[in-house]
Amino acid sequence: MTEADRKTWQAVQDEVRRYISARIWKPGELIPHEAELALQFGCARATVNRALRGLAEAGLLERRRKAGTRVALNPVRRAAFSIPIIREEIESTGQRYGYKVFLREMRVPPPDVQARLQLSGADKILHLQTLYTADNRPYVFETRWINSIAVPDVLNADFDMLSPNEWLVREVAFDGGDFTVSGVAATREEAAVLACKPGEGLLVLERTTRQGDNMITAVRLLFHPGYRMHTRC
Amino acid sequence: MTEADRKTWQAVQDEVRRYISARIWKPGELIPHEAELALQFGCARATVNRALRGLAEAGLLERRRKAGTRVALNPVRRAAFSIPIIREEIESTGQRYGYKVFLREMRVPPPDVQARLQLSGADKILHLQTLYTADNRPYVFETRWINSIAVPDVLNADFDMLSPNEWLVREVAFDGGDFTVSGVAATREEAAVLACKPGEGLLVLERTTRQGDNMITAVRLLFHPGYRMHTRC
DNA sequence: CAGTGGTCTAGACCACCGG
DNA sequence: CGGTGGTCTAGACCACTGC
Questions:
Q1: Is B213 in CB contact (< 8 Å) with chain A?
Q2: Which of B146, B142, B216 has its CA nearest to residue B178?
Q3: Closest residue (CA to C1') to nucleotide D15 in the complex
Q4: Structural domain boundaries of chain A?
Q5: Which CA-bearing residue is nearest the C1' of C13?
Q6: φ, ψ for residue A226 (rounded to 5)?
Q7: Which residue, A66, A92, B55, B105, is the most exposed by fewest CB within 10 angstroms?
Q8: pLDDT confidence of residue A2
Q9: pTM for this prediction
Q10: pLDDT at A3 exceeding the cut of 70
Q11: Tell me: the pLDDT tens digits for A182-199?
């Protein structure tokens, strides 16, 4: 209190964290408002705001105008999984990255993909199947549909040196998308590609990416057995 | 430009987004520094900072002191999945939430759980198996280990009205943990509990939660077939 | 309607780190 | 070294929303 130390917003945040952790402020409870905390901590209100806003984003606090700030009843509710960038993920473990395009064709996508890409009836678009490898062992099998009506250049793309994903990242400015994770059992064909047994449990990551209002690509990543997506918070 | 409109940081952020989306600022490229943008947008530097910081957190920009701000080469790299709160998830779809504690015992956990909970050799702790149901249909099967040495009160807990998770959330102030998602094939026993076929592909979410330096609980959620975790960005 | 968080400003100093 | 982002401040006005 008598300290003349400059308070950083991080220091304030840590302090508040301790209060919550020590249950001095209990779940569901109202905590003092910003102006008061600013006084207590001996800093500007903006600094308190910065600290509390961060905690609210992390889910530890719930804030509403006029109603004040409360300790969240259910903390740790959101976790940010970093979407793997295959090449980086493989190379960061010291393994050798590789990939092979299995299939490249124009085709009318199945209904679910049509819906995800907002395509009309009979549009043929680019369909790719690619296997990514780590030290030559199957890592992830990618099934990708690219809206080649929105991105006609892709038809001339050469995927020998640049994977479909890397090509798209270079050529298109994504600005959003959605992700789904689920679990499936390997079909006979998938097992053959991933060099595992049919019926093994695999993690699936599906992603749809758009640029503005254009849906660009829908991709399904089928990871090798034992693959885990992990995060910490 | 001639507008006297008050610029909010959101407006600045949208503007920058458009620049990136339209590839006026290309991936990897350096963008003007904060002071200059503040001039261009007719606002304070703090406002620009707020806008750009948000974009950097979202992964769209990369910022370094002295080096300046660049458009990220690989945007959309992280997606925040919200960790499901079973009861809310079920009730939000209008279904009836229920659960049943199958097993409650003291037991020495398997080595992987011992490691995750930082337990020494032969400590017996609380082991629970619970099935959560939506409209009486199996929704998720939970296998949970609770460090009853750190939280002795749990031994007297009554899980008739409050699920293990809800009890813990009420009694313990979590402040961190880690999450893993993966895919598995249902064993015969798991299939029986979840009323599905052995070998079906299932999503698994594993979570370890701590309070300060104490590891409190390790839980494995095995979701019913067809369950998907979804997020948008 | 009044209290609370949300935001903007102008100015300042600092930490980092590229050249 | 000097340029850039990171942060703090004091004060102000505003937007939302519970009472």
A1: no
A2: B216
A3: A65
A4: 9-71, 86-223
A5: A6
A6: 90, -10
A7: A66
A8: 36
A9: 0.91
A10: no
A11: 999 999 999 999 999 999
Nearest to B76 among A27, A177, A184 (CB): A177
Q: Does domain A9-71 have CATH number 1.10.260.40?
A: no
Q: What architecture is domain B86-223?
A: 3-Layer(aba) Sandwich (3.40)
Interface test with A, best of B81, B89, B188 (most A CBs within 10 A): B81
**Distance (Å, rounded) from C-alpha B185 to C-alpha A184?**
7
Distance B34 CA to D3 C1' (A): 12
| Residue A50, nucleotide of least CA–C1' distance | D7
Inform me whether the C-beta atom of residue A188 falls under 8 Å from chain B C-beta atoms. no
Q: Is B16 helix (H, G, I), strand (E, B) or coil?
A: helix
Between strands B176-185 and A229-232, the pairing is: antiparallel
Quick one: average pLDDT of B107-132?
Answer: 95
Q: What is the pLDDT of residues A202-217, one digit of tens each?
A: 999 999 999 888 999 9
B39 residue type, one letter: L
